[in-house]
Amino acid sequence: MSASAQTVPSAAWPEGVVARYLTVGGALVDVSHDMKLIDDTEPNLSIAHCGGEGCKASHHELWTHYGYRTDNGSRGADQEVSKWAQAHAETCRALPRPTA
Fold first, then answer.
1. Which is nearest to 21 in space by CA: 75, 84, 74?
2. What are 24-40's pLDDT values in tens digits?
3. Which of 49, 36, 54 is nearest to 84 (CA)?
4. What is the Cα–Cα distance from 98 to 93, expressed in whole angstroms?
5. pTM of the model
6. Closest by CA position to 76, among listed 54, 44, 29
7. CA–CA gap between residue 47 and residue 82 (Å, rounded)
């Protein structure tokens, strides 16, 4: 079944998810913001994580690598993480994690 023929989950996105990709296996790759260190007080990292059972794939980008010219760097980091997430979703065949 191609990704275009799959049923896209219609449930509300989890809090903090800024982008979502459907894998060919039917799992979701979520892009969200997080903090690099426990003692950080504000998000400073964009991260993608695959929700496929047994797939531990993830990718992150620090906002500081994308400068502070027009924003805090989140836009550039989001773009790079989203590129990775889409590429991963196009090839990942891991099934979604069971909910129960």
1. 84
2. 999 999 999 999 988 88
3. 49
4. 15
5. 0.81
6. 44
7. 9
